[in-house]
Amino acid sequence: VIGPVSIQPAEISKIAVLLITASFINNAPAMVSHIKGAIRILLAAAVLIVLVGKENLSSAIVMMGIVFIMCFVAARYKRMYIISMLIVAGLVWLFITFGDSFRMQRIEIWRDVENNEGGFQILQGLYAIASGGLFGTGLGQSMQKLGFIPEPHNDMIFAVICEELGIVGAGIVMLMFLILLWRIYDIATTSPDLFSGMICTGVMAQIGVQVLANIAVVTNTIPSTGISLPFISYGGSSVIFLLAEIGLVLQISKKRVKT
Known about the structure:
Layout lengths: L8 H19 L7 H21 L1 H18 L4 H20 L2 H11 L8 H13 L24 H33 L4 H25 L17 H18 L6
C-alpha cells in the first residue's frame, strides 16, 4: 500500500517474469531448445512464481503460462515442451487430488455445482448467461448482478456481459480480444529484435491465458481459479500493469520492421 493506492505484488511479478524470460531468451536463443537451458529459465522464474503461488495460486498459474508459451514459441524443437506440459498436468492433478482440502473442495464444487452450497456464485453466473439469450436484456438491465452474483464486477463480469448483451454481445467481446491478440502477434513477427518479439509474445500469452481461464471458470468448464478478465474486471493494479504492457507493445510497434 502506497498512501491511498493499493498495489498487488502479483501484478508486478507478472511483468517481471515476462521481462526476465524475454531477457534470458534474447541472451541465449538456442538455450530454450535444450532441457538444461529450459530448466535454467524455469528456475530463474520459479522464485517469483513460488512466492506468488503461496498467496495467489491463480496468478502463479498465469505466470507459468507466460513462461511456458514464451519458451515454446522461441524453441526450435517443440516436443520437449509438449511432453513437459503433459507431465505438469499430471502433477497438478495429483496435487489437487491429494493436496489440501480447500482446493479439493473447489473440485467437488465444480463437479456438482447445482447441489453444492459453495457453487452459488458459479450457478448464478450460469443463470445469468442463460437468461441473456441471443441479444441480452439490455445494458444495465441485468438482474443477476443485483445481489445474486457476489461481486459481479470482478471475476464474474463476463456472466453479466452475457446477460445484458446476450451471446451476440459476448461473442463481439471475445472477437475484440482476438483482434487485440492478432495485432500483438503481428507486431511480434515484425519486431526489430528478438527481445522485443519475446516481450510481445509474453504480453499476448498473459492476455490470452487470462481470457481463456476467466471465461472457462464463468461457464464452469474448469474449477474456479479467481483469474480476472483483462481490461474489464474491476481492479486498479491489474489494469495499470496491463496498460503498461500494452504501452511496451505500442513502443515496439513504432520501431518494427516494415514488410
